[in-house]
Amino acid sequence: MKKLVEEYSKEKLKFSPLFLNNEVGIESYREVIEYVKNQLSKFFSESRKPYSGLSYNETESKVARVSFPLEKKQPLTDVIEDVCNNLLLDSINVNNARSIGHLHCPVLVPALAGEMMISAMNQSMDSWDQSSTATHLETKIVKWLCTQLGFSQSADGTFTSGGSQSNFMGLLLARDAYCKKMFNWDVKQKGLPSIANKLRILCSQDAHFTIKKSAVQLGLGEQSVITVKTNNNQQMCLEDLRNKLEQLRSEKLHVFALVSTCGTTDFGAIDPIYPLFEIAHEYNIWLHVDAAYGGALFLSNTRKKLIEGIHMADSVTIDFHKFFFQPVSCGAFLVKDKQSFDFIHYYADYLNPEEDEPNGMVYLVNKSIQTTRRFDALKLHISLNSVGLEGFGEMIDITCNLASKTAELLNQSEQFEVINLKPQISTVIFRYKIGSTKDSNNINKYIHQQLLTQGIGILAKTKINNITYLKFTFLNPTTELEDIKYIMLSIERIAIEFKNNYEKFNNIVHYLK
After folding, report:
1. Cα–Cα distance, 334 to 201 (Å, whole number)
2. How high is the pLDDT of residue 6?
3. Contact, 249 vs 284, CB < 8 A?
4. Banded model confidence at residue 415, pLDDT cuts 50, 70, 90
5. Dihedral (Cα; 271, 275, 278, 282), 10-degree rounding
6. Architecture of domain 2-101 in CATH?
7. Sequence-separated (6 or more) residues with CB below 8 Å from residue 309
8. How far apart are CA 259 and CA 276, in angstroms?
9. Cβ-based neighbours of 398, under 8 Å, separated by 6 or more
10. Do the domains 2-101 and 151-351 sit in the same CATH topology, yes or no?
11. The whole model's pTM is what?
12. DSSP string covering 408-438, please?
C-alpha cells in the first residue's frame, strides 16, 4: 500500500502546476494571470481602433496559422503569445468608443474582477453543496431586482444566459400554465395536448426573433406566432392587436401569451405596457415583457417612466450584458408568481432530493432550465456596489442622451435620412441618401463594410421595408459626439469614393451582400 501511494504521489506531481490546490499551482496561477494581464493591458493601450480592419477571408487565414492541435505540449506563455498574435490583435474591441454596432456593451472593470473570481472558484449554481454562499447571494439579488421592478413578495426569478433563454422560459411557463388552466392538461407529464396546433402567441412585428425560435423549440411551430402591426413610433398597435385577438377567437384558436417588447433591437421602441396588461387581463392571456434591452431603465433618472407597468407582467426578461455593462453572458428571468416555476421543477436524489425541501434547503436548479450554471450574480454584485445605483443611472442617461444628440446631428445634414428622430433608448437608424433604392442599398452596404475594414467604426446594418439602413447602437457612456462626427465625415468620404467609382462597384454588388 505504501509503495502504491508513493508511486501515485510521484506521478501526480507533474500536474501540480495546473491546479489551485497546492503551492506550485498557486504560484503558477499568479504568474499566468500577471502575464495575461500584461498582454491584455498592452492590447487595450495600443488598440486605437475598434477593429484591426482584416476582412473575413484574412481573419480565416490568420486563424488557420494558430497552432492547433499540437503534437507536443508547449509552455503556457508560448501558447498565450500565439493566441495574442493570431487572435487577440484582430478581435473586435467592444470597449472602444467607436464600437457602436450591436447590443454588445463595453465591460466594467469591477465586473472583470468578478469574472476572475467566478472562473477560479468555478461554482455551479444548481445545488447548495456546490455553491453555498453563492446560492444565497443570487437569491438576494433576484429578490432585490423583483423589488426594483415593483413586483410583490410572491415574485421570484433566476439568472440566465440572456434574452434568448429568458424569452424561451417565459413562453414555456405561459404555455404550460394555459394548458393546465384551460384544458386541465399537465404538459410536464403528458406532453403536448392534441389541441396544441391551435395555440398562438402574439407579439409585435418588431419583436425579437427568439419569440419565433422559442415557438419552434416548444413544438408549436412558427405558425403559432402572430405578429401585430406597429405604429409610427414602432410600438405595438393596440387597435391591430384587438383585431387580431378577435379574429383568432372567431377561428377558435387559443392565444396563451402576449409578448410586450421593452426595447426593440432596431429602434429601441417600448411597447405600452399598461394598455397591454389590460388587454392581456381581459383576454386571460399571460403577459411576457421582453425587457432584455430596456429593463435597465429602472435605474435611469430621466427615462424610468418608459417602463412603468412592468410589474404587471407575468414574466420579464432582463439582460445585464447590455445596459449593466457586464461581460457576456449574464441575464435574468423573473416571474410574478414563484409557483410558476413548478412547471419546470424536477427532483434528482443525487442533486436536489425532495426530502431536503421541508428543511428549507434552497436548490436553484428548481427554477432553471439549466443544471450547471455560473455564479454570474457575483460580478453584478461587485459592479452595483462599487459603481452605485446613481452611477449606473448616470451612465445610462449619458448614453441615451448621446443617441438623441446623434439623431439631431444626422438630421441636420442633407446627406443623411434618420428614421427615429426621437429614440426612446439608445439606437439611431439612418442611411446615406443617394439616387434610387437600389443605389442607396448598395452604397450603404459598402459604407458598412468599409467602416469595418478600415477600422473606422463598427456600425450595424439592417433592412426596413427592403431598404438598407445603418444603425448606431449606443451602449458605451464614454463615446462622445466627436466620435460620431468622425464617423460621419468618414461616411461622406467613403460615399464620394463609391460614387466616383460607381461602375466598378456596380460590378461587385455580390461583394456587398
Report:
1. 19
2. 55
3. no
4. very high
5. -90
6. Up-down Bundle (1.20)
7. 273, 274, 277
8. 9
9. 477
10. no
11. 0.93
12. HHHHTSTTEEES-SS-SSSEEEEEE--SSHH
| Average pLDDT of the segment spanning 244-254 | 97
Residue with cell 456546490: 130
Q: How far apart are the first and last CA of the chain?
A: 69
The full DSSP string for 189-216 is HH-S-GGGGGEEEEEETTS-THHHHHHH
- Looking at the domain that runs over 390-512, which CATH code has it been given? 3.90.1150.10
| Residue whose C-alpha cell reads 421582453 in the numeric block | 290
For residue 195, pLDDT over 50 is answered with yes
Q: Which percentage of the chain shows pLDDT scores above 90?
A: 81
Residue pointed to by grid coordinates 441615451: 400
Closest CA to 361 of 122, 134, 135: 135
What CA–CA distance (Å, rounded) separates 210 from 66?
34
Output the nine-digit C-alpha cell for 342.
413548478
Q: What is the pLDDT of residues 288-335, one digit of tens each?
A: 999 999 999 999 999 999 999 999 999 999 999 999 999 999 999 999
Higher pLDDT, 127 or 357: 127
151-351 — its CATH code?
3.40.640.10
Mean predicted confidence (pLDDT) in 195-199: 97
Contact between 454 and 486 under an 8 Å Cβ cutoff? The reply is: no
| Beta strands across the sheet bearing 467-473 | 416-418, 427-432, 467-473, 460-464
Short-list 411, 416, 398, CA closest to 470: 416
420: β partners? none
User: Measured between alpha carbons, how far is 90 from 53 in angstroms, rounded to an integer?
Assistant: 8
CA atoms within 13 A of residue 241's CA, in its CB half-sphere:
27
| Pairing mode of beta strands 315-319, 331-335 | antiparallel
Distance of alpha carbon 502 from alpha carbon 508, whole angstroms: 10
Residue in the structure block whose three cell numbers are 405558425:
223
Please say whether the beta carbons of 217 and 192 come within 8 A. no
Q: What is the pLDDT of residues 488-501, one digit of tens each?
A: 999 999 999 888 88
Q: Could you report the per-residue pLDDT of 455-490, keeping only the tens digit for each?
A: 999 999 999 999 999 999 999 999 999 999 999 999
Alpha helices in 154-302 (DSSP H): 163-183, 187-190, 210-217, 238-250, 273-282
Any idea where the domains of the chain sit in the sequence?
Answer: 2-101, 151-351, 390-512
Mean pLDDT rounded to a whole number for the chain: 93
The Cα–Cα gap between 157 and 165 comes to 13
Q: Cβ distance 468 to 459 under 8 Å?
A: no
Residue owning grid cell 402567441: 201
